[in-house]
Design brief:
By secondary structure, the protein is α/β, with parallel strands linked by helices. The protein has 2 domains: about 280 residues, Rossmann fold; about 180 residues, Succinyl-CoA synthetase domains (Rossmann fold, 3-Layer(aba) Sandwich), CATH 3.40.50. The protein contains 18 helices and 19 strands. β3 and β4 form a beta hairpin. The chain is elongated and about 80 Å long.
């Protein structure tokens, strides 16, 4: 995978905003992607017209099947090709003859397989560019676009519509992130599995997503890159409008070999990449799923004005870990002023920690928790808050949930999902009132509970370390924007 940006950027809307899609290689065999991809397109409610092409079938998924592209009665914007690599050139020739504007080549068997595959890849690029046609892939898992409800993807998943856009040089990782994110309540605007990037590079996708008003946060899974200067310059421009979050793999010799064998990637120098990230102002995720954690923070929270963090936890041990996590991430945990201590004295038992972190000492009062958080949020010397313990799920207090049906009136209001949602809504109000990020750390891994909290507009994380890292990265991004403003 090589970054090779042309002298002028191309309009990629035929890929992400097609009015008419055709599938070459459609099939009635459930084990073939020619069966799964049309199923995804239909199940996601694609807003345009879909035509399926197979010379030996009459109907697939209840749709009439056409023998060839020239029989399709509409002008096609996007063709999805799932056919053996040897036949792809002739199918692309057919696309050019019928004035198709873009094509997604799902098929593998190109540069990633060696010299013969590389020659074949060069041929399909020649055909596509000669016909003025955009080419995604080859060796790709497809694209997703919420604006037209298009899910032209290999795996049977239906992403949740939203405002995150993702460019992935691994189709497997990219589509898994779509699935994981959707389960957590994270919505996506656009996605592309860039494959071998024979024609369209990661940089071109980044530029397109950077100009797209529906993409509020951009995620990038990168295995290899060249043109580091162009990457730096482009991210600098894009990041002024929206954050660019990057995870870089193939940082070891073994990983570099694996990247080349699976999609023909040129991994490049990790040292150079790290320098490019620092210069550009992109945000580097430390883990793959960490990209999703960061995306949630940037989508739902205001940027912190500084690096001073207030901590509210259900127990003392969590306060210690949260303090360590913040300091290790480059944040500060300042003491509480005496007047704030006095106010919290009126809310908590006398044996509370009387400092930052605020230890709730296991005090179970759903009305008090947001009041304590607000006292911390009021402070001018606090820029962000980590709140641990107000999200309770069915894995916590499971014995109590067994009794809810017998005594709903007395116990349900404390432990129910409804009570958690109420506190989450109050926390969201505090975020909006004080314009400070408040992140939650959970006492549960129940995805249903986490999703409900996120629906209230409060990001929730499973570890204190993650919460601290997200706030630190948001602060770094804010600082990079401040530097741009000062230069101007």
């Amino acid at each position: 995978m090589v970054f090779h940006m042309g002298t002028t950027s191309r309009d990629l809307s035929p890929i992400f905003e097609p009015k008419c899609v055709a599938m070459i290689g459609a099939s009635n065999n459930p084990s073939k992607y020619g069966w799964i991809i049309p199923a995804n397109i239909l199940a996601n409610g694609y807003k345009g017209k879909l035509f399926l092409i197979n010379p030996t079938e009459e109907k697939i998924w209840g749709l009439k099947v056409y023998r060839s592209l020239k029989e399709v009665p509409e002008q096609v914007d996007l063709v999805v090709i799932s056919r053996p690599a040897e036949s792809v050139p002739q199918h692309l020739e057919e696309c050019v003859e019928n004035h198709v504007r873009s094509a997604i080549v799902i098929s593998g068997g190109f540069k990633e397989t060696g010299k013969e595959g590389e020659k074949r890849e060069q041929e399909i690029v020649r055909i596509a560019r000669g016909g003025g046609m955009l080419l995604v892939g080859p060796n790709t898992m497809g694209v997703y676009s919420a604006s037209v409800s298009l899910s032209a993807l290999m795996p049977p998943i239906l992403p949740k519509p939203g405002e995150v856009s993702l460019i992935s040089q691994s189709g497997n990782i990219g589509t898994n992130l779509l699935a994981f994110g959707s389960e957590q309540g994270i919505g996506f605007s656009k996605f592309v599995s860039s494959g071998n990037e024979a024609d369209i590079s990661t940089l071109e996708y980044l530029e397109y997503f950077g100009q797209d008003s529906t993409s509020k946060v951009i995620l990038m899974y990168v295995e290899g890159m060249r043109e580091g200067r162009k990457f730096v310059d482009l991210v600098k421009r894009v990041k002024e409008k929206k954050p660019v979050i990057v995870y870089k793999s193939a940082v070891s010799k073994a990983g570099s070999r694996a990247a080349k064998s699976h999609c023909g990637a040129l991994a490049g120098s990790t040292r150079i990449f790290e320098a490019a990230i620092k210069q550009s102002g992109a945000i580097r995720a430390s883990t793959i799923n960490g990209m999703l954690d960061l995306a949630v923070g940037f989508l739902y929270l205001p940027l912190p004005k500084g690096k001073r963090v207030g901590i509210v936890t259900w127990g003392g041990g969590y306060g210690v870990v949260a303090s360590d996590s913040c300091e290790l991430a480059g944040l500060e945990v300042p003491p509480l002023p005496p007047e704030t201590v006095q106010k919290i004295d009126q809310l908590l038992p006398s044996y509370w920690s009387r400092g930052n972190p605020v230890d709730l000492v296991g005090f179970i009062n759903r009305e008090v928790q947001p009041k304590v958080i607000e006292e911390v949020a009021k402070l001018n010397d606090i820029d962000a808050i980590i709140a641990s313990g107000f999200i309770l799920g069915r894995s916590v207090g499971s014995s109590i949930f067994k009794l809810l049906r017998k005594d709903e009136e007395n116990t349900g209001e404390i432990w129910s999902d409804r009570a958690t949602k109420t506190v989450a809504e109050e926390v969201r109000n505090l975020i909006e009132k004080y314009r400070k990020p408040i992140v939650a750390v959970t006492l549960t891994t129940d995805p249903g509970t986490l999703k409900k909290v996120l629906e209230c507009g409060v990001p929730a994380y499973s570890t204190l370390e993650t919460a601290a890292e997200v706030l630190a990265k948001m602060y770094q991004y804010k600082e990079s924007l401040n530097r741009v403003e000062k230069r101007e």
